[in-house]
Specification:
111 residues, mainly beta, globular, 7-stranded mixed sheet
């Protein structure tokens, strides 16, 4: 089982980024999926959850700005991040298949 992430980078405050993860070697559509993030010196934070049928929930810190989505047939998941803030700077991780983690995607929000 593998999750291959893409996206991320450097963006100014107020900007947008889209993170993606492509899954392989798993029954991707059977399980919920998650997006976590970890900022330097801080604990890992659950940012978004998405059930296997696409129902979503978000942390209060990103609600209204981030949108998680998935395509089970394509075995992909995304995190659309809008109106990014300095405090969104972190490494972001996708999780699927109960406990398969993608490598971290660096997101830096800076002016």
């Amino acid at each position: 089982a593998q999750l291959v992430p893409s996206g991320g980078g450097l963006v100014q405050p107020g900007g947008s980024l889209r993170l993606s993860c492509a899954a392989s070697g798993m029954y991707f559509g059977w399980y919920p999926a998650y997006w976590f993030r970890q900022a330097p010196g801080k604990e890992r934070e659950l940012v978004a959850s998405i059930t296997n049928v696409g129902e979503t929930s978000y942390s209060e810190s990103v609600k209204g700005r981030f949108t998680a989505s998935r395509d089970n047939s394509a075995m992909k998941m995304w995190l659309q991040m809008n109106n990014l803030k300095l405090e969104d700077t972190a490494d972001y991780f996708c999780v699927a298949n109960e406990n398969t983690w993608g490598r971290g995607i660096q997101v830096t929000v800076s002016s």
